[in-house]
UniProtKB/TrEMBL annotation:
PANTHER family associated with the record: APOPTOSIS-INDUCING FACTOR 1, APOPTOSIS-INDUCING FACTOR 3
GO (cellular component) term, any one: mitochondrion
Keywords recorded for this protein, A-Z: 2Fe-2S, Apoptosis, Electron transport, FAD, Flavoprotein, Iron, Iron-sulfur, Metal-binding, Mitochondrion, Oxidoreductase, Transport
Protein name per Swiss-Prot or TrEMBL: Apoptosis-inducing factor 3
Domain annotation Rieske: ranges: 70-165
Family label: Belongs to the FAD-dependent oxidoreductase family.
Keyword Cytoplasm: no
Primary site of residence: mitochondrion
Primary role: Induces apoptosis through a caspase dependent pathway. Reduces mitochondrial membrane potential.
Gene3D superfamilies (alphabetical): 3.30.390.30, FAD/NAD(P)-binding domain, Rieske [2Fe-2S] iron-sulphur domain
GO terms (BP aspect): execution phase of apoptosis
Amino acid sequence: MGGCFSKPKPVELKIEVVLPEKERGKEELSASGKGSPRAYQGNGTARHFHTEERLPAPHPYPGAQDCVEAAICHVKDLENGQMREVELGWGKVLLVKDNGEFHALGHKCPHYGAPLVKGVLSRGRVRCPWHGACFNIGTGDLEDFPGLDSLHKFQVKIEKEKVYVRASKQALQLQRRTKVMAKCISPSAGHSSSTNVLIVGAGAAGLVCAETLRQEGFSDRIVLCTLDRHLPYDRPKLSKSLDAQPEQLALRPKEFFRAYGIEVLTEAQVVTVDVRNKKVVFKDGFKLEYSKLLLAPGSSPKMLSCKGKEVENVFTIRTPEDANRVVRLARGRNAVVVGAGFLGMEVAAYLTEKAHSVSVVELEETPFRRFLGERVGRALMKMFENNRVKFYMQTEVSELRAQEGKLKEVVLKSSKVVRADVCVVGIGAVPATGFLRQSSINLDSRGFIPVNKMMQTNVPGVFAAGDAVTFPLTWRNNRKVNIPHWQMAHAQGRVAAQNMLAQEAEISTVPYLWTAMFGKSLRYAGYGEGFDDVIIQGDLEELKFVAFYTKGDEVIAVASMNYDPIVSKVAEVLASGRAIRKREVETGDMSWLTGKGS
């Protein structure tokens, strides 16, 4: 460990006003040096183009601004591999010492605001302790997901063995940096029936693909189309915060899309893809030609097939409107959740403070059994029971009974009858690829789109990403898998964009997911399908534990609660290509994990 961290006395502080005109000019130009994109207009069909007139979010260098420079420590205050969060002027910075060099960065993860000082420093990057996003310490750039923005990188200099950091007031306060992007210079943008890049699906994969293209200097037309009525939003929050409004969930403000020439077609359903003529057809008959195509349609939730399935007040959670209606109907009434997977359990946890009663119906013995194992599942089940959730396990719904057309009772195959005014169904999903069945794009027997490591389908120029694909998982011997995780969709969208630009990128990220219930977060990294043993360290009853999932002699996944940053550390080890052996986790000695970054 390093020595005592202390500020030199006296602290040397400089504040000045600067006019970084050169920096402003650099950011305002597109890749071609031309100006801002054209305004979008509809083309006479039933398309909804978002065409707001405001400018992008405040620029990191908006003109005259305050800057601060201070000596914040002695060069010997940090050892190699150490990080410290230090105060500077109007905010804080993350100070990192790596290979003898100091780096100063934004101190919070732009995704959900996690303190990066509690993360993992390894291989020239810092990994977020909460959700696994990775940032290059030399540039601040986002290298692995989730999230869209990077960190600010601040100037560092060494004088008389003191470390000085210089930063602008705005950068210290914003704690996020959007990468420089090209702007659309296509003269036909918004008026033509053809586009250079068409992206079907505006979830994480679709949005990241569009942003990556602009970040890489692509300045031709990009069109995103979505079934939703909203611009891209944070879908994982739907089941964790059911009363969140669309504007609260938005991943980017409306003006962002216009500023960078990313057209968004909402309520746009693709019904046919003609790969021979490079054309898609929408439900209303509108046709759009493309040069490159990304398929990121996501998945469709499964519904119940029992008697009474048509009654009112039975929902799946796919849109903000779905979630909002569930909350309104559940207040002070009886709620039933069918399915004890992540979505179902998140909904159940949220409704405990809203509904009169919350019941969960599940076919398995314990929640999360196939994913987290019996012991972890039982510990989480007990947490729910302590929060007045009633479980009906090892049974299914046989009938939904209504009164005046509205749900009143859920009848189980075990013959039990559960009072219900609203029911949420979370029993899985299927890939939303029905519109591809008549195309020459390959689908597997379950309807997924197989892709290679470059996210390419069997058709040249057609890529696919997100929940609807199967792809080779590098560190599991290229096994073809489907991983419907928010983080994975980000990574796949970026790889698809890079390969549209012939960069020959390959998907190599380690899967990372999380859930939040009753104020507690469970984190998970790896791919644990087929695990044959679970090694648990810590205390399951106290919900302070780490669980290692093994297959044979190898650790293939890890889950934890109240044990940060263990999951991020394991993810970083797996990302480095190193195998973790079962014997390493059986002893309880985790020095191999908790030491300095690999």
